[in-house]
Amino acid sequence: MIRFVGTGCKTVTIESICHANFETVASTSTPLGRYFVAQPSHSQNKKPVRICWTFGDNHDTCIQYSTTYTGTYGVYHLYSQPGAYNVCVNILYDGGCEAQNCHTIQTGEADSCNADFERIPINTTNNPLSAYFRALPWHNHDKKPARICWTFGDNRDTCINYGQDYMGPYIVGHTTSTLIIMKYA
Question: Over 90: is that where the pLDDT of 14 sits?
Answer without folding.
Answer: no
